[in-house]
Design brief:
Blueprint (H helix, E strand, L loop, with lengths): L1 H18 L13 E5 L8 H12 L5 E5 L1 H11 L3 H8 L9 E2 L7 E2 L2 H9 L12 E7 L5 E4 L5 H7 L9 E3 L2 E5 L8 H7 L3 E5 L14 H15 L1 H5 L4 E3 L14 H22 L15 E3 L6 E2 L1
Parallel strand pairs: 1-2, 1-9, 2-5, 9-10, 10-11
Antiparallel strand pairs: 3-4, 5-6, 5-8, 7-8, 11-12
Length: 308
């Protein structure tokens, strides 16, 4: 009887093993995706179109970084303002919401109005409260060093990132004078890699500040000089970009806030062109290609994606 019992226990154990569900094959975790939003003043509204498409298509954003207007939009989105709300806000914005004329040797406008604007729109007030980890790029005026804010109060960091030299007054943060982040990180891809992003999508406004018609005033002269310098810096940030979106904003003036709806559509078109490449990153382990740092794709609505 004991021998029979032992045999039955063995049979039941074997039967249980056969009936046990097979364990699913272990999948490689999806890559962490970072989104880098470059500066562009009113042209930055095109970033809203990119975010809108990403939301609609379920593209995850694990980290986000911004410079100048890109930093403001990134902060709003990270705080919990959805793309649709951003689109509605953009349609109402005016230059006076960001700046006020002032008398100073250091610039023509102060960004003090941004304080009340951001207090109204941001759903949180510190980096630590954000739903998506955020990096904001600025430049220390005295040394020229890059400053990347990832903690502490949001508003002064955003004002510093937007302090366009010659136009807006520098902003003091923690006793250090700051100017626009475009001098250090025109498109802040490197901070995203440092935060832990495996794949980085960069949104860059390639067109110059002024077209062939020539400058209208001194702001056009300053802006054109910076846009030329910025175009020379592309090689630096592109090293950490896995895909580069270049919305066609050349038809829009830097202060074309009244063209918000068109700028959103331009951003949407650039994002739609990028979707096949970005979605390929999110495949399961059996289908996905290994993540390669530095593998880039430039994606514009009018071009076929190419690797380089």
């Amino acid at each position: 009887m004991d021998r029979f019992s032992r045999i039955m226990r063995s049979v039941n154990a074997f039967k249980g093993e056969l009936l046990r569900p097979h364990q699913a094959e272990k999948q490689v975790p999806r890559p962490k995706i970072g989104l880098a939003l470059g500066g562009g003043f009113a042209r930055g509204v095109a970033h809203v179109g990119v975010l809108k498409v990403f939301e609609e298509e379920g593209i995850p954003i694990d980290y986000i970084a911004g410079t100048s207007s890109g930093a403001v939009i990134a902060a709003m989105y990270s705080s919990g303002v959805c793309a649709k709300e951003l689109e509605e806000i953009a349609a109402l914005l005016k230059f006076s919401d960001f700046a006020r004329l002032t008398i100073s040797r250091l610039g023509l406008w102060t960004t003090d109005p941004m304080i009340n604007l951001l207090k109204r729109i941001l759903k949180v007030q510190t980096f630590e409260e954000l739903r998506i980890p955020l990096a904001v790029s600025a430049t220390e005026f005295a040394s020229g060093d890059s400053v990347v804010f990832t903690s502490g109060p949001l508003i002064d960091a955003l004002r510093a990132s937007c302090a366009y030299p010659g136009a807006f007054l520098p902003v003091a943060v923690n006793g250090r004078l700051m100017v626009d982040g475009l001098l250090a990180h025109p498109v802040p891809t490197t901070p995203l890699k440092q935060m832990g992003a495996d794949r980085v999508v960069a949104v860059y406004f390639k067109s110059h500040w002024v077209g062939t018609s020539g400058p209208r005033h001194f702001m056009d002269v300053i802006g054109q000089c910076f846009s030329i310098a910025q175009s020379r810096m592309c090689g630096q940030w592109q090293l950490n970009a896995d895909a580069v979106l270049e919305p066609h904003v050349e038809a829009f003036a830097y202060d074309a806030f009244h063209k918000a709806s068109e700028l959103v559509k331009v951003g949407e078109a650039a994002a739609v062109a990028a979707l096949p490449a970005i979605k390929s990153w999110l495949k399961t382990a059996s289908e996905a290609e290994p993540v390669r740092s530095g593998a880039k794709q430039r994606l514009t609505p009018a071009s076929v994606p190419v690797t380089g």
